[in-house]
Amino acid sequence: MKDILQELETRRADARLGGGQKRIDAQHARGKLTARERVELLLDEGSFEEYDMFVTHRCTDFGMEKNRPAGDGVVTGWGTINGRMVYVFSQDFTVLGGSVSATHAMKICKIMDMAMQNGAPVIGINDSGGARIQEGVDSLAGYGEVFQRNIMASGVVPQISVIMGPCAGGAVYSPAMTDFIFMVKDSSYMFVTGPDVVKTVTNEQVTAEELGGASTHTKKSSVADGAFENDVEALAEVRRLVDFLPLNNRQPSPTRPFFDDVGRVEDSLDTLVPENANTPYDMKELILKLADEGDFYEIQEDFAKNIITGFIRLEGQTVGVVANQPMVLAGVLDIDSARKAARFVRFCDCFGIPILSLVDVPGFLPGTSQEYNGVIKHGAKLLFAYGEATVPKVTVITRKSYGGAYVVMASKHLRADVNYAWPTSEIAVMGAKGATEIIHRADAGNPEKIAEHTAEYEDRFANPFVAAERGFIDEVIQPRSTRKRVARAFAALRSKKQEMPWKKHDNIPL
Ligand code: HXC
Q1: Rounded CA gap, 13 and 18, in Å?
Q2: CA distance 374 to 394
Q3: Is any atom of ligand 1 closer than 6 Å to the C-beta of 89?
C-alpha cells in the first residue's frame, strides 16, 4: 500500500515539473511564470482542484511515443476567486511549447463542459506554440471542439482569456470569442500570421511585438481589453474583474459589502460642467464620484477614449458604465467608440448587469473616413445593443445630447427605465449655431442677426426642459445628488422583468 501511495506522489511530482527544470528556468528568465504558478496566483490559496494531471497524448508519429509528458502541456481544473468558483486552464509552454494536441484540447473541453453545466466562469491562460505540429489534423479538430464550446458558452458563463505568451494562427480565435482578453506587455502576442509570413506576402517588415503585442491590441486593433506590466499584475486584475461578474447568466452579480454612504452628496459635481459649452471636463471624475468607494474597473481604457466603459458598484451591486468622454474628440460617437460600447452593453445584458449611461455627446463624427468605413453600420451596433438590452438602464445627461446620438445613448425611446438630466444639459437636434445656420440661411451674411437667432435657439432648446415636458426626461436633477438618485433608481429596478418577442436570435448589424 505504501508503495502505491508513494508512486502516486512520484507521478504527481513528475507531472508538476512539466517540461523539466531547465525549461522552467528558461520560462522564468523571460519574466514569465509557469502554468502552475499562474494558476496558484489566480486562485484563492489552496483552492485549486486539478483534473487530468496524468493525461498523455496518443501520437506515435515523429518519435512522439517516446515523449509523452504527463498533463500534455495544459493544467486544468477549478478553484475559487474570493470564494467563488471558476474553471481554469493554463497552457504550459515548458511542455512541447504548450502546443495543442488532441488530448490537450480534450482537457480544455472537459473543463468548459463542466463550467457550462455547473454555471461558473472559464478563465483560459494562453501560452502556446499553436497546433501540435506532429499531430496535424487531430490538433485542428481539437481547436475546432474548443471553438464550438466558446460559442456555446458565450452568454451563459463569463469567459476570460489571458494571453501570457505566444498565441498565433487559428489559435487566436478561441480567445477572440471570449468576453475579455487581457495581455501582458512585452511577453505576449497574438496574430493570425506572424512577421515572417507578413514579410513574404506583403513585404512589410514588422516585429512580433509591433504586429500583435499588448500595445497593438489595446490601442490599435481593440482585440484586447487590457494590458498589464507582468503576469502577477495581470492575474491580480483578473481576480478583481471576476469579483464584479456573476458566475453565470442565471445568477445575479455578487453583492459586495460597501462602506460608502448611498446618499453621499458631491458638491463638486455642481461645477463639473464648465460654463463654456465647448470646454472639456473629465467624465471619469463623475464616474469615480458615483461609484462605491470610487472603485472603477475600466474595460478598453486605451482604445476609443472618447467613450468610457467599465464596472462600478452602487450599494455593493455591479453596474456597467458607458460614458461619453468630453476630453477626447468632445465625446463624439464614431466607429471605434460605437463598437467598443456596443460590445460592452451586450456583455452587460447577457449577464444581467444593469447599465448606467452618462451622456455628453455632440453627435456622430463627420468625414469620409467614417462614412467609407461604415459608421452607419457600426453606429447601429450601439443603437441596437441598447435597444435590445432588457437589463435595468439608467441614463444621466450631463451636457450635450444632440441628434441621432441622443437617441442612441440609452434614451427613453430605447426603453431606458429612468432618464435623468442635469440642469446644464442641452437636448436638441443639434447645437444652436449649426441649427441657426440652417434655419436662417437667408441671414447667413449678417453676423448680428445670426447671433440673435442663435441666442433665441439656445433659449428655446439648449436646456433639458423641452425633453422633460414630453416625459423623455423623467427628472432634472442636481448634479451633487446624482449618486443618490442613480442608486435609488437602480434599487427600484431590481426586480425589473422585460421580455423580447420570440426569435431564434436577432441580426445585429455586424
Ligand atoms: C510542437 C512545438 C510547437 C508546435 C513549439 N514547440 N511550438 N512543438 N508543435 N506548434 C516546441 C519546440 O519544438 C520546443 O521544443 C519548445 O516547444 C519551445 O519552442 P522554441 O521554439 O524553443 O521556443 P521559442 O524560441 O520561444 O519559440 C516559440 C515559438 C516557436 C515562436 C512559438 O516555437 C514556433 O514558431 N513554433 C511553431 C509555431 C507554429 O507554426 N505553430 C503552428 C501554427 S498553425 P523543445 O523540446 O526544444 O523544448 C496553428 C493552427 C491552429 O496553430 C489552427 C486552429 C484552427
Answers
A1: 9
A2: 29
A3: no
